[in-house]
Amino acid sequence: MRIAFYAPLKSPNHPVVSGDRQMARMLVKALQHGGHSVELASELRFYLRQPELESFDALKIEARDEAARLTRLWDRNGKPDLWFSYHPYYKAPDLIGPELASAFAVPYVTAEASYSRRRNAGLWADSQALVARAIKQAALNICFTQRDRQGLTDAIPDAALGMLSPFIDTSAFREMPVRGCPTRLVTVAMMRPGDKLESYRMLAQALGSIGHLPWTMSIVGDGPARDEVKAQFAGLPADRIEWLGAIEPAAVPDVLYTGGIYVWPGYGEAYGVAYLEAQAAGLPVVAQDIAGVPEVVRDGQTGFLTPPGDVAAFASAIERLLAHNDERTMMAAEARRFVLEERSLGTAAARLAELLKKIPVP
Asked: What distance in Å separates the CA atoms of residue 299 and residue 293, rounded to the nearest whole number?
């Protein structure tokens, strides 16, 4: 099929590295892997940072203009076979695809759409109503986590739903990695206020309680909360922590290969692409049993998931893997097998093909 792909929150070409951008790129690759022709329908970013009516109205005007541009383009060059919208939610609804899909009788599909009733207040309620309308219209809504699936089911009982497990392109991890330092901890995460900062705070607290163990730490990431993040680690020995800053995504595997354990609490993670990359590199994970993290880490098999907010339990899980090399080695092998065999681009492409072939295309 000829597929028009659109990510209202962040285009696959957006300059800022993030999990959203990476998954958008992975979906495009998976669709292409399945033999489809994928064209980026629009670069328009429809992101409403705060519930401000003036900003919302301005973005709606931009979306209307973009829809008009695509209408002229499709009238001239022909319409696509399907519109694929990635990650529409209350701050980033898709205000282009549903209208065009309806006007041109093109099937509309979403992936990782989400709906949260607790956001139904003020302007957020208006934007979420737009998301709900698109979900109802969709011939298929592809969910990455059971949590998102349940949210859509509760809000829109008659929505057409399908499941696709989070995945990565494992090509960079296919070669057997050189064994890294088993006591080196690694994390890869942006530095911004909110959940990311809270995760860094918890990580620093946990490391502070296991200072008697011979760990070292590599931290990849940067962002507006850099100073606040570093302040959380100020009480730890400076020679134990390596601040690598922001690096190119292609360089991440090499950093992961130097380590022995991946540690990241995971507050607010939709699922966490970085967890999959770490496991592909042969690193067992220590995270919290929170949000969408259980969708990508198998507790007791590829890592440990600890109770939310329990710093002592989080620290204890790290300590256990530092102290028991045999267990860490077994988990490392299972983590790598899990991602390479079950969460690869090829596996995702096959699942996507299975889901999309059920959609009648005019």
From this structure: 10
User: Could you tell me the pTM of the whole model?
Assistant: 0.90
pLDDT at 204 over 80: yes
Residue 92 gets which letter from DSSP? B
For residue 40, the SS3 value is: strand
The label of the residue with tokens 């509760």 reads 154
What letter represents residue 87's amino acid? H
Tokens of 327: 């267990």
Name the nearest CA neighbour of 323 among 246, 158, 212. Answer: 212
Tokens 């992961």, residue located? 256
The full DSSP string for 282-342 is T--EEEES-TTGGGT--BTTTEEEE-TT-HHHHHHHHHHHHH-HHHHHHHHHHHHHHHHHH
Domain containing 175 equals 170-342
Q: Are residues 103 and 130 in the same domain?
A: yes
Q: Sheet harboring 184-188: ordered strands across?
A: 241-245, 216-220, 184-188, 261-263, 285-288, 303-306
d(CA 271, CA 191): 17
Which pairing describes strands 2-6 and 82-86: parallel, antiparallel, or unpaired? parallel
Regarding whether 72 and 21 lie in a shared domain, the answer is yes
Per residue in 115-171, pLDDT tens?
Answer: 988 888 899 999 999 999 999 999 999 999 999 999 999 999 999 999 999 999 999
**Pair (335, 350) in one structural domain:** no
Q: What is the pLDDT of residues 259-292, one digit of tens each?
A: 999 999 999 998 999 999 999 999 999 999 999 9
Give me the phi and psi of 3, to 5 degrees please.
Answer: -115, 130
Q: Tell me: the pLDDT tens digits for 49-94?
A: 899 999 999 999 999 999 999 999 999 999 999 999 999 999 999 9
What distance in Å separates the CA atoms of residue 246 and residue 317, rounded to the nearest whole number?
27
| 330, 282: one domain | yes
Asked, for residue 301, whether it belongs to a domain, the answer is: yes
SS3 category, 102: helix
Strand partners, 38: 3
* CA atoms of 259 and 167, how far apart (whole Å): 22
